[in-house]
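Hey team,

Filing this mostly as a record. A colleague (T.K.) asked me to run one chain through the structure pipeline before their review meeting, and I want the input and output archived in the tracker in case anyone asks later how it was produced. No errors, nothing strange. Just documentation.

Input sequence:
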Amino acid sequence: MTRGDWSHRQAAVQDPAAPLNLGAMQTPIPSAGVIDGREHALPVRVYYEDTDFTGVVYHANYVRYFERGRSDFLRVAGVRHADLLDRDDPAAFAIVRMEIDFKRAARIDDALVVRTAYAAARGPRLFISQRITRGEELVCAAKVEAACIDLAGRPRKPPAGMLETLRPYFA
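Output structure:
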């Protein structure tokens, strides 16, 4: 088989006219990752759209990966953004500070893991530590400060129920 020979993959391609067999699952649900102890882990694959012309992840896309990690940590912990907006006193988040240390380049097709830990809450602010790894290798790390805000953009304390839900995960 030559490098360009893809005939061995044909058996894995499903007939597009055949119904999709998902077993017991009726609708595919994207993974929101898992919480292990105090840290959330979210697997992320690097796609062509994430890279620059050299096949290296464009630096701004790490910010997107970190956002997915923070949002999915909350989702898995039981805090949904939609529920925060549906309250009588709606709440949202704004990132007020982010410090990123780039250690190594991630490349197209890499399997990465976004690791997120909510460290503390003080007043309207949440302090978050994040890192992206490829296997055991650190790709980049971030220190994030998010502020809970009302819909007018003014700082407000996070809803009490949210803080109680997150308290077991604070360092």
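Quick notes for T.K.: The radius of gyration is 20 Å. The first strand starts at residue 34 and ends at 36.
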